[in-house]
């Protein structure tokens, strides 16, 4: 039987096989020998040990299309990153750091600004202009229930991770799009009671047979420790159209003359705010490399 791991706690993996069926499984020793750890989101094959008690063993893990370390999860179709329009004001530097991490891991990202009722339409358009050419951008108000259906449509038939800083209304949004009352949650809730009062673990919520949602703890900072300054430019998708057009091959778009990216910034084709953050990140990585030499 095949299924998807929706939660892992203390060596037990809970595999959703469809139609509300959930099996409590252990991973076979062969995975430990190969130093392969099953992740939430993995597609797996299981052998059934007890069909009544829904107990089994994981025998195979399908090839992953992607994986994240924090949260530890695999096979994500998209990340919806939520920031507030106001209260607190959006930290776009932090948002850009997050986008770099997702670009590096080749995970599709959707940007969602909550509390849109607190700013004007003109202010919304100004924020959207920074990102809308490269990423889907949504404006919602979880409190006023504005734009939530469009966001929910974006999640259909996908495995989605919600992420964002604390205090931006992420939980309110998740509570709206996660219609637990309509799910066959009785046996699922009972089976994963084991982890109810433990440290926060990655968990996928089953919204429908092929739609899954994961919440993640709020993040407050993202360090660019695992990125080389030479590769940073590849994680700003608006730069890609100019790749190879600059005077110098391998142009870093920093100090080089006749740089087409810098010209695009001057011409308003690339938002200056995004480029300024690129320069800051570039220097940050450069300084860290000097420190660790």
Notable features of this structure?
293 residues, 3 domains, globular, single chain, six-stranded mixed β-sheet, five-stranded mixed β-barrel, Ribonucleotide Reductase Protein R1, domain 1, Rossmann fold, alpha/beta, OB fold (Dihydrolipoamide Acetyltransferase, E2P)
In short:
The protein is of the alpha/beta class and 293 residues long. The chain folds into three domains: 2-63, Nucleic acid-binding proteins (OB fold (Dihydrolipoamide Acetyltransferase, E2P)); 68-214, Rossmann fold (3-Layer(aba) Sandwich); 232-292, Ribonucleotide Reductase Protein R1, domain 1, CATH 1.10.40.50. It has eight helices and 13 strands.
Report on the structure:
The structure is a single chain. The protein is an alpha/beta fold and 293 residues long. The protein has 3 domains: 2-63, Nucleic acid-binding proteins (OB fold (Dihydrolipoamide Acetyltransferase, E2P)); 68-214, Rossmann fold (3-Layer(aba) Sandwich); 232-292, Ribonucleotide Reductase Protein R1, domain 1 (Orthogonal Bundle), CATH 1.10.40. The protein has 8 helices and 13 strands. The protein has helices spanning 29-33, 92-104, 121-128, 148-155, 170-177, 186-191, 260-266, 272-292; strands spanning 2-9, 12-18, 21-27, 43-50, 55-61, 67-68, 73-74, 78-84, 109-114, 137-139, 159-163, 204-208, 211-214. It starts with a strand and ends with a helix.
């Amino acid at each position: 039987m095949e299924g998807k791991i929706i939660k892992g706690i203390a060596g037990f993996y809970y595999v959703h096989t469809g139609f509300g069926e959930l099996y409590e499984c252990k991973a076979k020793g062969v995975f430990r020998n190969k130093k392969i750890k099953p992740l939430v989101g993995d597609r797996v094959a299981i052998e059934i040990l007890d069909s009544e008690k829904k107990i089994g063993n994981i025998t195979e893990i399908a090839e992953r299309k992607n994986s994240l370390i924090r949260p530890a999860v695999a096979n994500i179709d998209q990340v919806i990153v939520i920031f507030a329009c106001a209260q607190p004001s959006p930290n776009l530097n932090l948002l850009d750091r997050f986008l770099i991490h997702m670009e590096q891991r080749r995970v599709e990202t959707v940007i969602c600004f909550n509390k849109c009722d607190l700013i004007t339409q003109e202010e919304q358009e100004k924020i959207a202009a920074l990102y809308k050419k490269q990423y889907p951008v949504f404006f919602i108000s979880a409190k006023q229930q504005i734009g939530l259906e469009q966001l929910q449509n974006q999640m259909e038939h996908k495995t989605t991770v919600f992420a964002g800083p604390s205090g931006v209304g992420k939980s309110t949004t998740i509570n709206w799009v996660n219609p637990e009352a309509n799910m066959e949650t009785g046996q699922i809730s009972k089976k994963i009671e084991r982890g109810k009062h433990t440290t926060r673990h990655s968990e996928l919520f089953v919204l429908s047979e092929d739609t899954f949602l994961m919440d993640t703890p709020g993040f407050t900072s993202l360090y660019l420790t695992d990125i080389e300054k030479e590769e940073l430019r590849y994680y700003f998708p608006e730069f890609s159209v100019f790749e190879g057009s600059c005077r110098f091959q391998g142009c870093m778009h920093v100090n080089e003359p006749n740089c087409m990216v810098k010209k695009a910034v001057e011409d308003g084709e690339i938002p200056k705010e995004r480029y300024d953050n690129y320069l800051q990140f570039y220097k940050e990585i450069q300084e860290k490399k000097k420190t660790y030499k």
